Amino acid sequence: MNIRHYKQEVLALTMRWVRRLSREKFSMLFTLVQPMLFWLIFFGSLFQRAADIQVLNAPNYMSFLAGGVVVMTVLNNGLAGGVDLLFDKENGFLERMMSTPIHRTSVILSRYLFVMAITGMQILVILGIAFLFGVTPETGLLGIAVILVIGMLFGIGLTAISMAMAFSVKSHGDFFSMLGFLSLPMIFLSSALVPLSAMPGWMQALAFMNPMTWVIDAVRPLIISGWTEAIPQVAIALIILAIFDAICLYGGAKAFRRAIG
Amino acid sequence: MSAPVAIETIQLGKTYGSVTAIQNLSLTIQSGEIFGLLGPNGAGKSTTLRILITVLEPTTGKALVLGHDVVKEADTVRSLIGYVPQERAIDRFLTGREHLELLGDLYHLPKADAQKRIQELLQLVNLEDKADLVAKTYSGGMKRKLDIACGLLPNPQIVFLDEPTLGLDVQSRLKIWEHIRQLRSQGITIVLTTNYLEEADQLCDRLAIIDGGTIRVTGSPQDLKAGLGGDRLSLTILHSSPDKLAQLTAGVRPLSFVRDIREMDNGLDIRVESPEKSLPAVLEVASRLDCAVESIEYQRPRLDDVFVAHTGHALKGEFPDVDTE
User: pTM of the full predicted structure?
Assistant: First the structure.
């Protein structure tokens, strides 16, 4: 494979998404003022009193929630990332691209890079707003960098799932239904909103098997606890993500190959 | 005398589970010709086209484009061909120029070469003044022009067009045909799919009739029509009787240009070579034998007849044919 050609393809394809975003004024606005921000600010403030600090093991609910909101952003962006490729498939643009000598993975990689770049910026905005509300990351700037890396790694598997959906569904209506069906349970059956210990037994069991829980449980200590508690959690998360990503990439590749004849 | 072969398919087949889209499809396309795949929707023309442009893999058989296998040497094939899809495969948020620039990068063209090529193409399709407006603002005709420019960007030796004039008005259709003929004059091979008989007849050098996933017949429009056995002369006489018809048949048969005679209820259906000699000669025979001619009809075979002869049914496109004269 020619590296120079590959870079040329991926750069051009990624710039396409950037150009589109800069032209869809409404989308741009939405990207900056993310719904996740509202979750953080409103939920965080709402449950100040209702949340038991003992149960949370955190200074306040907002600092607890911040970790969850960061990973929720990765989840939503990652799972929805494939939708533009679905539109490309529907209007024939994908076929046009596939008739050129590009490497078959460029289209997916460019989408991943774009979605993760946006996600990274959104995470920084979330942490920034949380900071304004008094949430200071215990592991500082390095910790934030680690959070971004973990987010990007989680994003790999999520992007693969999104692509698999985009290439397998018959219409974009199905895509959005599937998206809702997947993302909401994943959020509630995780440690995003409450610690596992506070959940009823059956929810705990399901949340335990949710990779998102492990990701959040690595991001959260980076924000509220410090390096000693965070490092082992991060290590566990990395192992789980390696397995998660491998499975998703395998499944995604199969779906892709089946869609491209 | 034989031109080099641009495309060859050998027993090409594609199945999706239990559905067979195409089977045993073998054809040869010569360099520099306009080759048409004619058939109704669902016949397998798009499937064949998509295999040739390497976005679909065949289940059986193989296809060689410019000597390269479409599966094993897909990237080589891709860099040599251009594709103009049926749908307007366009990104509404990008400008015309940006489409071409993107494709330039996907074909790995160096920036300077790409810019020059893009300028040429925009001039060629007359999109220069609209090149920097987003495609959302383009009319249907402009989008089509952009499609063509995109298809020609890599300076391809073969251009594939999927139903190039589907749904277009007569003016636009004729313009597109002109474009295609111009491409041919530059030595480019053109492969197109169509379900318009008129298009196959007037535009294509050679065509293949595809129906139900297989090729029924291949040849130039003229050869295919001639293959039906000539033009048809239908004679109807007054006061017809089996005796009179037998006499008439006997009188007409020895004429040199007559290929075949069939007796009908009130007259004869005669297959002849050309109108000039046949019309007066047949009339003369009828008059000599005292058969009063009620009407005489002369019909050149049309591609419709060829289609019916080889598939057993008429070609029903989803859109009305422009002119079936």
Answer: 0.83
